[in-house]
Design goal:
- The structure is a single chain.
- With 125 residues, this protein is an all-alpha fold.
- It has a domain at 82-118.
- The chain is built from 6 helices and no strands.
- The longest helix has 16 residues, at 55-70.
- Residues 48-60 have a biased composition (Low complexity).
- InterPro entries: Lambda_DNA-bd_dom_sf, MBF1_N.
Length: 125
């Protein structure tokens, strides 16, 4: 090289490049286990007690399913009679009130309950 005032030297210090340590999942990988066997490393195998059985989930589910299958009770709410629905609507219309105004005047039912009563749905709780 011409024109340079300094001398060029080489650095002979060794450079070590390392891979990061394998994660837990990588250590359980079949390739990693086989490589450890070939290298003569000690390998520990532990069988978990409920592994691949799924007994806990299936036993409780089957009990609940059996109870539901044996249940014969009718689980529907009583409906508001049509006569009551018509009487509420007629009284409200006679007083020229909207559903929300009727709910505010009575102070006992929120608007949603007034709507369900007028539409002959289940009674408010």
């Amino acid at each position: 090289m011409s024109g340079g005032g300094g001398q060029i030297t080489q650095d002979w210090e060794p450079v070590v490049i390392r891979k990061k340590a394998p994660t837990a999942a990588a250590r359980k990988d079949e390739k990693a286990v086989n490589a450890a066997r070939r290298a003569g490393a000690e390998i520990e195998t532990i069988k978990k007690s409920n592994a691949a059985s799924n007994k806990a989930a299936s036993s409780s589910t089957s009990l609940n399913t059996r109870k539901l299958d044996e249940e014969t009770e009718n689980l529907t709410h009583d409906r508001v009679p049509t006569e009551l629905k018509k009487a509420i609507m007629q009284a409200r219309m006679d007083k020229k009130l909207t559903q929300s105004q009727l709910a505010q005047v009575t102070l006992s039912l929120p608007l949603s309950d007034t709507n369900t009563s007028s539409q002959s749905r289940s009674p408010p709780k």
